[in-house]
Each structure stands twice: as structure tokens, then as C-alpha cells.
Amino acid sequence: MRSARARSTPTPQGIPRPEGQIVAEAFDAVDIIRTKRDRGALSTEQIDWLIDAYTRGYVEDPQMAALAMAILLNGMERREIHDLTMAMIASGERMDFSSLDAPTVDKHSTGGVGDKITLPLMPLVAAFGAAVPQLSGRGLGHTGGTLDKLESIPGWRAELTNDEMLEQLRTVGGVVCAAGTGLAPADKRLYALRDITGTVEAIPLIASSIMSKKIAEGTGALVLDVKFGSGAFMQEFERARELALTMVELGRDAGVETRALLTTMDVPLGLAIGNANEVRESVEVLAGGGPADVVELTVALAREMLDAVGKGDADVEAALADGRAMDVWRRFVVAQGGDPDAPLPVARETHTVVAEADGVLARQEALPFGIAAWRLGAGRARASDPVVHAAGIDLHVKPGDAVRKGDPLWTISADDATRIPRALEALEGAWELAAPGTAVPVPPIVRERIA
Ligand code: URA
């Protein structure tokens, strides 16, 4: 039903109203909320109006919060999710990389503990002549942010203009930088609201939020790393799968060659959880070494990204072993003001947990390790908090590894010793040593590919 104020066609998107001017609104937010509350479907025109009206402040936060809860409880049809994504894209600018000679391909991960894959992956893919425009974020809560990790490198800067980004894609082949405020501003506001209203977990809202930014970014191809498990944003495999399928459809509808890998996140990825230590571990992978799980996921994602741009025969392992990916990494760090040879920050205080008996590590839960690293200062509780780049956890063992009494299990690091007890508290009950000789199955990281 139209509101009493509705008189005309839907309001054109993104046109600011001069202050004080009375403008006929096409729809009424309360009608839209009621429709979704009563399990109805919203029309394309209603969704276009809603996102435009929310962006210009006509629809208020409490109204949008009520609608987000109705969507979380009652869902959206595929067409509604598509319309929501397109409306959020239309709320801001769209980037255009069509002037580049190279095909563009990006990756998005739904995030997990120790997930530093962007760092070795971007240079590896760029080493094969694909351009990788990676717009990333800072961390909030127990999962770290790619920009926070890279900012451990002295001099490295995350803020680039669109022109600088384009130039670096031309000269280096890859860029990792902060998404400008102009990209899907409706999502920025809605995401902050969802965060404080218990409505983050709605698949239509997550899918439209992630894909609106990726489509607006202008990449030609996209590979999604959708994680499931105790340390993931979506803990159940079936829900993660539904999210992945929804995002792949949204990308394809928008003309972006989109694929997804469903990957496990029950234990931390790699041996480093933090910022500077994750950069160190990524450099090890670029030097042809590094932990097996980080290498396995980096290689799987690189193959998928290169296949998506017609380079499916690339020998990605060779580019890690022979230094081609490392060359791109070094040029990338320099291009963004950093010194790839500068020492990374080291924490003032460390504490090593040791095995109290012989055994086999049977369990190491990602979420508590992420929380412990966060308490050490590696993450932030509020968007405005600084992170401590040297803080974090270095694992010495992973599930399935045998240990002897007194062997180190993990070392936790902080600049401030008072943070250490709270971090140790987070780890209580988060791991388990089984009797020597116990077989501990280690599942493959990639459970399913959606292509
Ligand atoms: N990341 C996003 O960008 N949006 C969401 O809704 C969830 C994760």
C-alpha cells in the first residue's frame, strides 16, 4: 500500500534534497516493514526507494532495524536479494577497470582466525598477468583485518585514490587498499546498524552486503572463500553453502564470473594469529615455505581465480617456489610506501604454554584462539581503537601433532603484560591433548567447490 504522501513515481536514486523542501515520497517505510513482517515479498520499486530513502536519511535507523529483523526471520526471495544488491550498488560509485589490458579478478573471504591468505594470494595471482584489485577492511572482533596486518609493515599505507589504484594495477598487477567511502554507502550504514541489532546473520543481508561492494568495485571475476565451522561467521556447513550459492548467483546475474570454495574454519589457519606475525608467515609462503594448510588454501584459491580469467593452466606452485610471486609482493609493498626489508614489530612480553604430559594435540578451537589474540591487542573492540601490531599468538603445534612433556604448544605475545592472563583465560578448555598414539583426523580444507 502507498502512503498518504505518495503521489508520484519512485524518487530518483541518490538525488540530495535541498533542506526544508517537501518531497513526495513514493512509499512508506512502515508499509514495507509490515509487508516483510507478514512474509510478503517487496517489489523492485519498494526496494529501490527504501535504499535510496535510507541513504538520504528519510528512512530512519529504527525503521531499517525493524526491517532487517523481519528479513532475518522471514527471508527474501532470490529476486528481492538481487534488487537489494543492485539498489545498494546504486547508492554509491562504481569503479571501472576496463582501461586495463589485463583481466581483473578478486577474492573475498568471509573471515576466520589466522586468515592471512590475501597476502600471499594477491601477488601469486598477479604473477600470472591477472590484475587483482583487492579492497579490504580492518578487523573488528576476533577475526583480523587484512589492512591491520599489512600496516605492520613500516611505511605501508592503505589509503589510495582511485587513480593510484588503477596505476598500481597497471604497474604492479595487484593492490590491497581500503575501500573508499563512496562504494555502496547504503551498505556501510546498514552493516553498522545490523551489528548492533542482532541482524548480522541474515543470509539475504550478508549476501547483498558482500556482493554489492564486490560488484561496485568493478572486478571481472570473483572467487569467494566461504568458511564454515566453529571459528567462522557461519558455523553450519549447510548455511555457509546457501550463502555461497546465493552470492554466486548474484555475481553471475551482474555479469561477474563468480565461483566459491567452501572451506573449514574449525582450527586457526596456519601457525600465526595476529598482525606482524601473519605478515611473517605470508612471506614464508611467498618464499616457497610456510605451513601446509596456508599453502593448500592459497594454491586452491589462486587456481580458481586464474581459471576464472582463462588462465587455468598456470603452475601456481612453481611461482611460489621460484620467487615470481615474491617479486610481485616486494613491488606491491614498495608501491604502497612500505619497506619489504624493514624488521617487523616484535612484542615486549611473551608467555609460552607447554605440554604437561606426552600426547597428541586432538583439538585446537579457532574461536577462542581468535578471542585470545584479540585480548592481547591484535584486534579491536571499537572501530576507532588502534591495534597492537606485534601482539598475537604463534602456534608450535597443530591437531594431529605429537608432543612430549615440556614441549612448547604456543607462545602468546603482547606489549602489555597485564593482557596475558585474560588471553590465557580465553584458551581454557579450547584445546585438548589425547593419549600418545591417538589418531586425529585432519580434514581437507576445501570441502566443496561451487562453479
Ligand atoms: N561482511 C560484509 O561485508 N557484510 C556482511 O554482512 C557480513 C560480512
UniProtKB/TrEMBL annotation:
Top-rank taxon, per record: Bacteria
One BP term from GO: pyrimidine nucleoside metabolic process
Organism, as annotated: Agrococcus sediminis
Residue intervals of the Pyrimidine nucleoside phosphorylase C-terminal domain: 360-434
Enzyme Commission designation: 2.4.2.4
Enzyme superclass (EC): transferase
The protein's assembly and partners: Homodimer.
Cross-referenced NCBIfam families: PRK05820.1 (NF004490), Y_phosphoryl (TIGR02644)
SUPFAM superfamilies: Nucleoside phosphorylase/phosphoribosyltransferase catalytic domain, Nucleoside phosphorylase/phosphoribosyltransferase N-terminal domain, Pyrimidine nucleoside phosphorylase C-terminal domain
One GO term describing the cellular component: cytosol
Claim: Glycosyltransferase is one of the keywords in the record: yes
Record keywords, A-Z: Glycosyltransferase, Transferase
Name assigned to this protein: Thymidine phosphorylase
Molecular function (Gene Ontology), one example: thymidine phosphorylase activity
Coiled coil: none
InterPro entries: Glycosyl_Trfase_fam3, Glycosyl_Trfase_fam3_N_dom, Glycosyl_Trfase_fam3_N_dom_sf, Nuc_phospho_transferase, PYNP-like_C_sf, PYNP_C, Pyrmidine_PPas_bac/euk, Pyrmidine_PPase_CS
PROSITE patterns noted in UniProt: THYMID_PHOSPHORYLASE
Annotated family: Belongs to the thymidine/pyrimidine-nucleoside phosphorylase family.
Amino-acid biosynthesis among keywords: no
